[in-house]
Amino acid sequence: MKKLVLSALSVAVLAAGSFAADGKALFQQKGCTACHQAAADTVGPSLKKIAAAYAGKEADLIKFLKGEGKAIVDPAKEAVMKPQLNTTKAMKDDELKALAQFILSHK
Q1: Virtual CA dihedral for 5, 9, 13, 15, nearest 10 degrees?
Q2: pLDDT, tens digit (0-9, with 9 covering 90-100), for 45-100
């Protein structure tokens, strides 16, 4: 029988993948797909554009989703997102982290 040995990095990568999977489910359940697509700008900016703007700034993205930060991707459309922030403001911290990791996975 082979032993499975996971390094701390492997565990972190697996956890991040799990968070992103949970984030995808939340993204779909909360109706984010109505305005955000993976690679195309529609009502809102694409996930790829958001991920590029928030690269290395996960905490800033979570802050925005909590309604505590300004939009940095397309500030002119921030008013459109304001009502939707009520949904993300009500989410738990682990849900917001999962959602942010899913968004940031669109490099």
Answers
A1: 80
A2: 999 999 999 999 999 999 999 999 988 998 888 888 888 899 999 999 999 999 99
What is the pTM (predicted TM-score) of this model? 0.80
Task: Show the tokens assigned to 107.
Answer: 């490099």
Residues 6 or more apart whose Cβ sits within 8 Å of residue 24: 102
Q: Residue 41: helix, strand or coil by DSSP?
A: strand
SS3 content of the chain, % helix, strand, coil (to 5): 65, 0, 35
Residues 28 and 14 sit within 8 Å (Cβ to Cβ): no
Residue type, position 10, single letter: S
Tokens of 102: 């899913």
Residues sharing a CB contact under 8 Å with residue 89, sequence separation 6 or more, in sequence order: 65, 66, 67
Residue 13 clears pLDDT 50, i.e. is over it: no
